[in-house]
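EI: anyone free to look at a 149-residue chain?
SC: sure, send it
EI:
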Amino acid sequence: MTQTHPAVTEDQLLAGWEKGEQAAWEQGDTSGFDDVYSDDLVYHLPPFPDVDKAGLRETAGVFHQAWPDFRFRLDEQFATDSTTVYRWRCDGHFSGESAMFTVPPTGNKTEASGTMIFHWTDGKVTEVWHFGDWLGWLIQAGVLPPIPR
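SC: here you go
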């Protein structure tokens, strides 16, 4: 039997970005998570381990400490059935102390781009695939050494 899903609304599409991602990563504000994410959320952030909603709150918080001037810009978004897709760019300076990293802040500017795919069920996001150039980001930050040529 074919399973059908109600279409994601424009309000959900925007809330997924603004409350679920932008506020958390830019300001460390995860108060919108309960409006957007289900209690059984699975957040994939390869190559890092998957996290649940509580783990995402912690990850966003310690990330924001390391990049207090982080900016997250949306380049493109669309929804189809029960899925939303976001293409983004970001930048910031690794200028804050954070338990996320074992090296002190370098002050280096970092830039990256990526894509997120949200799967919605009953008006809440149940799964996120968050892809970005994490290797390039960490090399730019000075957390990892440059790749030899």
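EI: Strands lie at 37-45, 48-51, 71-80, 83-93, 109-121, 124-132.
SC: 👍
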